[in-house]
Specification:
By secondary structure, the protein is an alpha+beta fold. The chain is built from 7 helices and 12 strands. It has a 5-stranded mixed sheet with strand order 8-11-9-10-12, sandwiched between helices. A 3-stranded antiparallel sheet has the order 6-5-7. A two-stranded antiparallel sheet has the order 1-2. A hairpin with a 5-residue loop joins strand 5 and strand 6. Helix 3 runs antiparallel to helix 7 and helix 4 packs parallel to helix 5. The longest helix is centred in the middle third of the chain and has 22 residues.
Length: 238
């Protein structure tokens, strides 16, 4: 990872096990932690010097990156530290950090994750209902298993048990929201559990959900949780 004189982390081609460059990483301006663009949070400036969250990382111009840690960002903002590091990063004193920045990031991460679920559902990549999911797990079709955070413990345990016995790798994650919000996202009624049955879709969903969970203090240290499901099952509960 390289860094220019402004303190903004710049791209670097990290050599993977095959000797080929991996995806560029970014560096949190508060902690120095490294992560992929999809794992961290990009901040950008508008023309008036206002700081805003660029969660899609598409805004033009300079960007500053933060680890997805709500408590860290809120504390840094309250103490003025965030404004200080942003002034150095953007090379300007005309910085306005809105009081609503943390809440805006939280709402944006939730919206992006739920929108992604809705898109994958419309594409036919999701199934729901314990019985259907159980059958798909036994058949080795499930790549990602999702639970609403108000799901009954025995229901989660039953599906997670089937996931562990599945013939393929399955990642199980508890969402930071309950069944009501999950159901709205999928346009269905009373969705408590959902499963993603396509590898690329599972990677897209798990990436959005991992950053959302990390921001809320869940699995913050698991910077690789946004990757596609890997060998073995990782059961992630609150």
């Amino acid at each position: 990872m390289s860094q220019n004189e402004t303190g903004i982390a710049t791209d670097i081609d990290v050599q993977g096990p095959t000797g080929k460059p991996s995806a560029p990483e970014r560096k949190c301006i508060l902690t120095g932690e490294h992560g992929s663009r999809d794992a961290l949070i990009r901040l950008a400036l508008d023309d008036a010097g206002g700081v805003h969250a660029d969660l899609a990382a598409r805004a033009p111009g300079r960007g500053a990156w933060l680890a997805p840690n709500r408590a860290l960002i809120a504390t840094a903002a309250a103490k003025g530290k965030l404004r200080g590091v942003l002034m150095r990063a953007f090379k300007t004193t005309s910085i306005n950090v809105p009081d609503t920045l943390v809440e805006t990031i939280a709402a944006g991460l939730e919206r992006r994750a739920l929108d992604r679920l809705g898109l994958e559902n419309k594409a036919g990549h999701l199934i729901w209902g314990s019985e259907r999911i159980g059958d798909a797990l036994s058949a080795g079709r499930v790549r990602l298993l999702l639970h609403a955070n108000d799901a009954a413990p025995d229901g989660m345990a039953k599906l997670d048990g089937k996931a562990k016995g599945a013939p393929n790798s399955v990642v199980s994650i508890v969402l930071p929201v309950g069944r009501e919000i999950l159901s709205l996202a999928l346009g269905r009624e009373n969705v408590v559990h959902a499963a993603v049955c396509e590898t690329a879709a599972a990677a897209r969903v798990s990436g959005a959900v991992a950053r959302w969970r990390a921001f809320n203090g869940l699995d913050f240290n698991d910077m690789g949780a946004n990757a596609a499901p890997t060998k073995g099952i990782r059961v992630t509960h609150e």
